[in-house]
Amino acid sequence: MEKRIDSKIIVMIILLITVIGLSIGYATFSSTLTIKPSATYVSNPNNFKVDFSSSNNSLRTDPIVPVGTPSNVSATEAKILNVPGAKAISGLSAGFTEPGQKVEYTFYILNTGELEAFLKNIIFKNALNSTSNKLCEAMPGTTVSLVNEACKDINLKVRVGNDLEVLKSLTNITSHNLVKGAHEKVTVIIEYNSNGARADGDFKVSFGEIAIDYSSTDKVN
Asked: Which residues have a Cβ under 8 Å from the Cβ of 58 and sit 6 or more positions away?
């Protein structure tokens, strides 16, 4: 009699997204512009400001409530931190029990400064102790080879605005601007493919940080 294996798959996602408001080499506001011998203009760094927000019409830092498919998929609320030099969204995690499940986090990027901002890079950094942005670990009693197969079917992607959806790093982006006072929606999707492989026990998936770089110029580095 064939023994049926009930797989209970718990996927813990560790994801930190950081917005770097100014990329070295792109920035223009830190330079000194000479108007004439008797006058100079030194731009104020505060003129360039890009922030995370839980709202699309004002700067708010309420917890970001995830949307699961199906609705009973477990997931934690994400938190916004808008401290200069450490702007981040953290705490994104999901618990999957079978293929076909996903969790979505939706938030916004606001241009709250005085200068136009340009999206330049979306960088998927390596997970801790990994050479890629995803690390899968079998829990005790779970077959490593089955976890390795299932791991291929659990992915993370980021949508920025209406025209960008990425699963890996994208650099030297051009013509993607965010004018003063404007916003754009960002959606982070953690998904277990509907036809994904199964494991015979619990395992953990960790993703590396994702950096979203904006600049005050649209020039290519």
From this structure: none
Rounded-to-integer distance, Cα 111 and Cα 182, Å: 6
pLDDT digits (tens, 9 = 90+) for 123-146: 999 888 889 989 999 999 999 999
Listed range (17-21, 91-95, 167-171) with the worst mean pLDDT = 17-21
Mean local confidence (pLDDT), 192-198: 94
* Dist. CA 93–CA 55, nearest whole Å: 21
Instruction: Find where tokens 């080879």 sit.
Output: 145
| Sheet of 177-178, strand order | 79-83, 86-92, 15-20, 210-215, 117-124, 177-178
Please give the C-alpha separations between residue 28 and each of 38, 90, 124, 131, 162, in angstroms, as whole numbers. 22, 29, 25, 34, 27
Pull the structure tokens for residue 210. 């994702």
